[in-house]
Amino acid sequence: xxxxxxxxxxxxxxxxxxxxxxxxxxxxxxxxxxxxxxxxxxxxxxxxxxxxxxxxxxxxxxxxxxxxxxxxxxxxxxxxxxxxxxxxxxxxxxxxxxxxxxxxxxxxxxxxxxxxxxxxxxxxxxxxxxxxxxxxxxxxxxxxxxxxxxxxxxxxxxxxxxxxxxxxxxxxxxxxxxxxxxxxxxxxxxxxxxxxxxxxxxxxxxxxxxxxxxxxxxxxxxxxxxxxxxxxxxxxxxxxxxxxxxxxxxxxxxxxxxxxxxxxxxxxxxxxxxxxxxxxxxxxxxxxxxxxxxxxxxxxxxxxxxxxxxxxxxxxxxxxxxxxxxxxxxxxxxxxxxxxxxxxxxxxxxxxxxxxxxxxxxxxxxxxxxxxxxxxxxxxxxxxxxxxxxxxxxxxxxxxxxxxxxxxxxxxxxxxxxxxxxxxxxxxxxxxxxxxxxxxxxxx
Length: 444
Ligand code: SF4
Ligand code: SF4
Fold this sequence. Notes:
Elements: E1 24-26, E2 32-36, E3 46-47, E4 54-55, E5 60-63, E6 72-73, E7 77-87, E8 93-103, H1 125-130, H2 143-146, E9 157-162, H3 171-178, H4 180-194, E10 198-204, H5 208-220, E11 226-230, H6 239-247, E12 263-267, H7 268-280, E13 286-292, E14 300-305, H8 310-316, E15 324-329, E16 336-337, E17 351-356, H9 373-377, H10 384-392, H11 396-401, H12 412-416, H13 423-442
Parallel strand pairs: 1-14, 9-10, 9-12, 10-11, 13-17
Antiparallel strand pairs: 2-8, 3-5, 4-7, 5-6, 7-8, 13-14, 15-16, 15-17
Helix pairs in contact: 3-5, 4-7, 10-13
The structure holds iron/sulfur cluster (2 copies).
């Protein structure tokens, strides 16, 4: 198959050898969990429990508010102890439901749902919506919305994203190695919903074992899925870049969506969650993540209950091995630095990266030397040097004219900049400011 490489991109050391060979382990049930009401893009969920209520694992404890929102379920059996502000991954406080565990019984699935493919496609969407599934590659967009394109946007190409191009992370890789049949079944369900003409499973070339296993599984099950090995290049797993590589089409700038070019992209973790929701009626109450980096004593791939505080996971992995440098939720390119170990694991947490002190450089940004390297690597064809300056001096309308909102925040420009300018950080700030002002203007 002919691939269509996206422009730009970088080749950071992938550092996946720390955990790629490690089987996923189940974590012990946490003593208490803190489940934020906003673990997704869209309106925060509305609590349907009150302090003192007994809840069973899998019970709905907060309901989606509106179409673009997602339900939240109890990830343990216990008692609701509080509903209030709690530290979140973005360094702020946001509302969360605290449950104290009283019973470590596992989730009991419904009776297995048989003959799923004989059901009308649209009847599968409520199972996904009810389960509170969101994009688990980090985007956290509610999945039932993504799988409900309007009638005038038929989907030709379904692309399952097993690229996992963020350095260090190996959760999706392990999922493909340990649950190939379940992922395949999830793909078949999504295909049934969308009626796509072509279905692809894209895996980065640095995971030859996963590529081989998924190819063998597809062949054995006689499924009509193209397993594609895509070149190792960051950010190959970003939605727009993957669409370009696989089907050669560009999602329109200025707010275009994959459905505008007849495509839907779903992460393999999300696909697995869809399988569990449809086949077993299991809500999204846990996820696989990678705990990694040279700062942690015992790197692992773990299956973790949502709402588990980072401190619990750190203890389970033996704590810091050396003087702490940075603890990042996610990978080194797009992850977020943390300052509070009470922060819980949420639906979008793909990893926890611990960097020792001697691996964390202290940078002193200089003025731009106009080398143009950031422009060369930008996979969106933007001018990060200009966007950085506009953002720095609060020239937001100039930044908008230069397509600020098309930035996917991949961090390639910051990575490459010899003047150590914090480009993506400044751009992210400006994007937030532009969106906040737009919202304010719309509410006037
Ligand atoms: S962070 Fe934005 S501006 Fe920088 S390289 Fe990525 S897409 Fe381009
Ligand atoms: S890479 Fe850095 S120094 Fe070079 S043009 Fe971009 S912002 Fe300027």
